[in-house]
Queue: 2 jobs
Job 1
Amino acid sequence: MSEINTFDEIDENLAVASKALGNLGGRRPEIALILGSGLGKLADELEDATCIPYTSIPHMKTSTTQSHVGQFVCGRFAGKEIIVMQGRLHGYEGNTSSEVAFPIRLLARLGVKTLIVTNAAGAINEAYEVGDFCIISDHINFTGRNPIVGVGSTQDFDRFFSMTAAYDPHYREVAHAIALQEKVQVHEGVYVGVLGPSFETPAEIKAFRSWGADVVGMSTVEEVIAARHMKMRVLGISLIANMAAGIGGASPDGEEVLDVARRQQDGFSRFLKGILPKL
Ligand code: HPA
């Protein structure tokens, strides 16, 4: 897929891809969940699950990151029919913005109305601690890319669309209420999305802090732009996997990120189990 795609081209590919997904065994999930680095195990908790590898879907790229499985899992979780992306596509893997957005567009086409994006992130805000969760209130797209580039307005979707309240205010309230109930340590803050794969320099983290960013990561922003373009409602949750570069002398590394995420899987699963029935 080239960097620039008109919506007609994208739509043709989506038609082929959604056929490959079949009718999801007659299921009609309205909620999709993208599992971030180290958080993929939650997909194993789905009841009556059907797995569809990304490699079986025409026009879709697959995950190349060791911690991302690379399949859709459709099944029941917390009493809801959901579809999970067990592994996401990152820009740093060499995927174009359009390729990163493709599964989101596919989910919208399949009738998904709500997207829950999760990720492991570094904390810029010094009040945050490793293992805490951050409900994303807003984002700064510092990837230098945007999946809507080249996509003209269509009957259903505008080229120019609002990114105000992109992270649904009602969903954020629900997440706070569940965190209180489940005694999960949460914050609410701004996520700055970078392309990666190098971690940031301490100078970059200082700059991001001065812009109002609380957490930093290498995903999410392009997915959320694509989701809002197609009018999906979005909830974003970051797991604080490390302090960002330079904070208290921190120098993040990939193994640390995965270790923390894996250790927080149970809390994460409890948190989501509480949230899902309320969306
Ligand atoms: N920076 C960017 N991406 C990340 C980080 C970080 O510190 N931690 C987890 N993903």
Note: The chain has seven helices and nine strands.
Job 2
Amino acid sequence: MVQRVLIVEDEDVIRMSLSENLALEGYKVTSVEDGEKAITAFKDNGADLVVLDLMLPKLDGLEVLKQIKALDMTVPVIILTARSDEVDKVVGLEIGADDYLTKPFGMRELFARVKALLRRTQTLIEVGQTANPNAANNDVVAVLEQIQLGDVRVDFKTYRAFKSDKELEMSVKEFELLRYLVNRPDIPVARNDLLDEVWGYNSYPTTRTVDNFIARLRQKIEDTPDKPRYIITVHGIGYKFVP
Ligand code: CA
């Protein structure tokens, strides 16, 4: 499923750069340069996500945000703003934006946020369905909520894990890392993809961090962490989960 992104930005350079880069990432992109066109485009075509500049001609970003959310409350909106003091105003609103970026920002940061928001929406839609291995390589994955690995039971919904009946101490990142791999059975996942998907844009850890987390995860869920049964190293790439 191709996801549609609507870009609303009056600065030509930024708008064109955003359109080009998001299209290269595989999104279907529509871009407009003022607030009125944004509303028309959203009414006509809808969108799975909106990237919205705040200072716009004709209709300002806040008004566009309000109208778009009135049309579709669930559509995620990322606000772009040149001034960090505008951020409080946006985030504090009842019809709040889902995320924001202060200009100037990097494309990598934007991609991470777009992905995270689309995944969040998708998760809400698909909660309760069982994991579909055929969908495993897409960003759109069904969410597996619980898994039994030998005598270890992991519940991704409550973030609790038990070995036999003893509760395991696992960090949220460890749960998220495991969940990401578990939802892509038998598919090798690159360390860099794990960094993007599990750590996201807030921090800048190294691929070494991934290795450390994997080692800790193995200590907890594997019977023999030195010879893992579930989380396998794929040399030159990263890791994969073997059910
Ligand atoms: Ca502007």
Note: The first helix runs from residue 12 to 24.
